[in-house]
Design a protein that fits this description.
Blueprint (H helix, E strand, L loop, with lengths): L1 H19 L2 H13 L3 H14 L4 H13 L3 H14 L4 H13 L3 H14 L4 H13 L3 H14 L4 H13 L3 H14 L4 H13 L3 H14 L4 H13 L3 H8 L3
Helix pairs in contact: 2-3, 3-4, 4-5, 4-6, 5-6, 6-7, 7-8, 8-9, 8-10, 9-10, 10-11, 11-12, 12-13, 12-14, 13-14, 14-15
Length: 253
C-alpha cells in the first residue's frame, strides 16, 4: 500500500512539474535528448514545447531535424514548411528541407530550396556541395563546378568538394584537371577509396592504363572487396592483354 502511495505521489509530482514547464524548458530538454541521439525522446519534448508555443521557429526546425533523423520525411517537410511560413528566410529550415527532399529523390525541389538557402547565406559550405551534387544530377556540370569552388573558397581543405569537383571535370572531358583535383582530395583524405577509383577512371580515359592500375590497386588496399575498383581493374587488365589476371577478378565479382 505504501509503495502504491509513493508511486501515485511521484506521478502527481511529475504532472505538476510538467504543467509548470515552459516551452523553452521542453525545447531545452528536447535539444539535450537530440544531442544524445535519442530522437524519440527529443521529438516528445519538441512536441510538448510546440503545444505551448506553436509559432517557435527554432523549435519547429529542431522538430523537423528530429523527424528527419527518424526518417519520417513527410512529417519533417511539414515542420520545415511551418517554420518557413513564419519566416521564409530561415536558412536552417531551408537546409533541412533540402535534405528531406533529397531523401525523397525530389531533386528539383531540393535544388530550388538549397539555391535559395545559398542566396540568403552563402557561408555554409555543405549547402554549396549539396547544390553542386544536385546540379550534377541534372547534367549541369559547369554550374556544379562553380558551386564546389564556392565551398572550397570557404574551406580550402574540404576534400568532398575537391572530389566532386573532380567528377564534374571528368564529365566535361577535362581529365587532367580531374586528376589534379583527385590528387588534392587524396592529400587531405588519403583513405578515400572512391577518389582512387575515380582517379583510375580519369587515367584510363587518357589511355594511361598502368597508372590506372596503380590507382585501382590503392583503392583495393583500402577495401579489398570494393567491387567498383575490382571491376575497373579487370577492364584495365583486359586492355593490357592480361586475360588470365582479369579472369581471376571476374570469378570474384
Amino acid at each position: 500500500m505504501k509503495i502504491i502511495n509513493v508511486v501515485v505521489c511521484i506521478f502527481l509530482l511529475s504532472a505538476i512539474c510538467a504543467a509548470q514547464q515552459t516551452a523553452k524548458d521542453f525545447d531545452r530538454a528536447g535539444s539535450m535528448f537530440y544531442s544524445f541521439k535519442n530522437y524519440t525522446g527529443a521529438l516528445d519534448y519538441f512536441n510538448k514545447s510546440l503545444d505551448k508555443d506553436p509559432n517557435n521557429i527554432d523549435t519547429l526546425v529542431r522538430q523537423g531535424d528530429t523527424l528527419k533523423a527518424l526518417k519520417e520525411y513527410n512529417a519533417s517537410i511539414d515542420s520545415y514548411n511551418k517554420a518557413l511560413k513564419l519566416n521564409s528566410s530561415n536558412v536552417a529550415a531551408l537546409s533541412g528541407l533540402t535534405d528531406s527532399y533529397i531523401a525523397f529523390k525530389d531533386y528539383t525541389n531540393a535544388l530550388n530550396t538549397v539555391t535559395k538557402a545559398n542566396g540568403l547565406n552563402p557561408k555554409i559550405k555543405t549547402n554549396w556541395v549539396k547544390e553542386g551534387q544536385l546540379l550534377q544530377l541534372q547534367g549541369r556540370f559547369e554550374e556544379a563546378s562553380t558551386s564546389f569552388e564556392r565551398a572550397l573558397a570557404l574551406d580550402k581543405n574540404y576534400s568532398d568538394a575537391f572530389y566532386r569537383n573532380g567528377l564534374s571535370a571528368m564529365a566535361l572531358g577535362n581529365n587532367s584537371q580531374a586528376m589534379n583535383l583527385f590528387n588534392e582530395t587524396l592529400a587531405i583524405s588519403p583513405q578515400s577509396k572512391v577518389t582512387y577509383n575515380a582517379k583510375g577512371l580519369a587515367l584510363e580515359a587518357e589511355g594511361k592504363y598502368a597508372d590506372a592500375l596503380v590507382a585501382y590497386d590503392n583503392a583495393l588496399k583500402i577495401d579489398p572487396t570494393y567491387n567498383s575498383a575490382l571491376s575497373n581493374r579487370m577492364h584495365v587488365l583486359l586492355a593490357l592483354k592480361k586475360e588470365n589476371e582479369a579472369l581471376k577478378i571476374f570469378v570474384k565479382i
